[in-house]
Amino acid sequence: MMDVMPRGMPISVAAHYVGLKETAFRNTVAKEVKPVYLTPRRPVWLRDQLDRWIDTRAGIASGPAQDDDLMNAITNN
Predict the structure, then answer these.
(1) Does residue 28 contact residue 20 with C-beta atoms inside 8 Å?
(2) pTM of the predicted model, to two decimals?
């Protein structure tokens, strides 16, 4: 059986994913990154949004400009 990292994570998994306890996650990340509600009582946090939150905290650029730089490096432009 294959382990799969879900795209949408419940708070316990999302907190672990970013390296925080649930309380710290609620007090920091959850104030900035809003969950997606799969059902009215089932919030999940999206992996790519959590990655972006970490990148922002680390001062790492992300988005179209970074993608263009990568494509230019690949194509030697």
Answers:
(1) yes
(2) 0.74
Residue among 40, 39, 41, 22 nearest 30 (CA): 22
Give every CB contact of residue 29 below 8 A, 6+ residues apart in sequence: 14, 15, 18, 20, 45, 50, 53
The amino acid at residue 1 is M
Encoded tokens for 62: 């992300």
Alpha carbon distance 64, 50 (integer Å) = 18
57: in domain? yes
The total of structural domains in the chain comes to 1
Q: Rounded to an integer, what distance in angstroms lies between the CA atom of residue 49 and that of residue 57?
A: 12
pLDDT, tens only, 48-74: 999 999 999 999 876 655 555 555 556
Instruction: List the domain range (segments joined by +) for residue 37.
Output: 8-75
Contact call for residues 5 and 37 (beta carbons, < 8 A): no
